[in-house]
Amino acid sequence: MTVQKSGPGFAVAAVLENGGWRCSELDPNALTDLDAAITELGKIVTTGAVVALLCVDDEFFVLIRLAPSGTELVLSDAAAALDYDIAADVLDMLRAEMPDEDDDETWAEGDLGMMSDLGLPSEELEMIASDIELYPDEQLRMIARRCGFGDQFDDLLDRL
């Protein structure tokens, strides 16, 4: 069983509709409960892309995208599953193995190509997620910029 920590973080939905992006805050429960995050994302009615960007406790990020084929997920640091329920839930949904407690490595898990149609190839997303010199909010800002909603993302974070 993991220890549920809570602390600094944010949960944002980015919605592409009619060629433009808008960002809005998701319920804070999305930071601790994957089902809550997916439910919140599912409430957004649009014909375009919808992506949740979760920055959890300044430790890791989670990307969630609802697609016709199912829920697509990326966890920036699989080792976070040892300490955070939401990260463990992501690994469970991905059917990925839990990391070994003795493992000091960090690696991303999930569909790294989930943002490629939005301008962020899988290789670049993997590079961003694996950059241990960056905080998760900085990584998410890079992702937002690369996908074309950096200004909207920054404006929302400035208001939070």
TrEMBL record:
From what superkingdom does this record's organism come?
A: Bacteria
Tell me which InterPro entries the record gives: tRNA_Adeno_NH3ase_assoc_put
What name appears for this protein in its UniProt entry? tRNA adenosine deaminase-associated protein
